[in-house]
Amino acid sequence: MRFVYSDRHMLHDPKTEVQIGVAQAMHETPSRAEAIREALVADGGFTIEEPTEHGVGPIHAVHEPAMVRYLEDAWHEWEAASGAPEMIPDTVLHPALREGMAAASEPRFPLARLGYWCFETMTPVVPGTYEAARAAVDVALTTADLVLGGEPAAYGLCRPPGHHAPRAAFGGYCYLNNAAITAQYVAERSGEPVAILDVDYHHGNGTQQIFHARGDVLYVSLHGHPDRAYPYFLGYEDETGTGEGAGANLNLPLPTGCDDALYLDAIERALEAIAAFGGSTVIVSLGLDTYRRDPICDLALTTPAYHEIGRRVAALGRRLVILQEGGYYVPDLGENVREWLRGAGGSA
Length: 348
Ligand code: SP5
Ligand code: ZN
Known about the structure:
Layout (H helix, E strand, L loop, with lengths): L1 E3 L11 E4 L2 E4 L4 H14 L3 E3 L7 H4 L4 H17 L28 H8 L11 H20 L4 E4 L21 H13 L3 E5 L6 H7 L5 E8 L24 E6 L5 H17 L4 E6 L16 H12 L4 E6 L5 H16 L3
Parallel strand pairs: 1-4, 1-5, 5-10, 6-7, 6-9, 7-8, 9-10
Antiparallel strand pairs: 2-3
Helix pairs in contact: 1-10, 3-4, 5-6, 8-9, 9-10
C-alpha cells in the first residue's frame, strides 16, 4: 500500500496541554508519527511518498477563511502581545454569553482572538503549528489523489489530526479537519456521495458539524459515549442529521471497557449504513486510541482486532482514503496502524 508522509509535522511540537486545570505533558507528540512511519517502512509492504501542495482552496471549501487566516497569523500577534511560549486560551466564547444578542464579531485583542477561535485548553498553538497543519492537509489530499487515480486504498499519515475541528473553531489536538477537507475534495472531484467512517476513540465533532445538513456526505462514528468521553457535547445517538442531511449521520457510542467482540458488532452496524449509502469512496478517520493501553481512553481493543477491522472495512468493496487521527500509546502505535492497514490491504 502507498502512504503519504511529510516531515513538516515535526514543526508542531507543543510541550504542554491543560487537562482538568493541570498543565501536563502533551499526548499528541511528533514521536507518534515517527513511530508509525518507522513501523510501515520496516514492514516492507508499504511505499512512502511526499505530499504535493494543494493550496488553501480545498481548506476554504470547508473552513471559515477568517479562522484559517487567524491560524496563519496567530503566533506572531501572540508573541508580540504576551511573551508566553505556547498559546492556550483562558477565556472562550461560551454561547450563553451573548444569548439573545447578535453573534460576536472577531475581536482584535490577541488573548480574545484565541478564545474566539479555540474551544478548549488541550490544543496549544506554537510557532510551527500552521505549517504542520497545512502539511497534514496536503498529506490527506495527496492520499485522496492516489485513490482518485485508481489505488484501491492509500494511507495518509496526518499529524496534527483533524476530526475535532468544526467549520469555524479548533480544539481536540486538531486545527484543520483533514478528513472533512478530503471528503469535500473527493465529493467535488468524483461528483459522487462520500462516506466517512470515524473509528477514533473520540467522536469527530468537527466532521459531524461540517456535514450535518448535507445529504451527500455520510458521517458514521464509533466512539466512547459522550456521557463520559470528550468532546462531551456531541456524539449522541439522536444526532442523525438535519434538513437535507437528515439520516446521513450515525453515532454509535460505546461503553467503558468495550472489547473486540462488542466493537466488531458496532463495526458491522457502521458498515451496513455505509453499504446502504451511495458512492465508491470511503474516508476513514483512523484513530488507535481505542487500544486497551491507551493512556487517555477507556476501551479495550487488542492489536489483532485492528487487522480484523481493516479487513472488514476493505470487504465493503469501496476505495479507501485512510487518514491518521489519534492514538497515544506510542510503543504499540506503529504496530497497530500497520495491522489495520495490512488487514485493509489484504495481507495476513
Ligand atoms: C484526535 C484526538 O484523539 N483528540 C483527542 C483529544 C482529547 N483530549 C483529551 C481529553 C480529556 C481526557 N481526559 C481523560 C482522563 C483520563 N485519565
Ligand atoms: Zn481520539
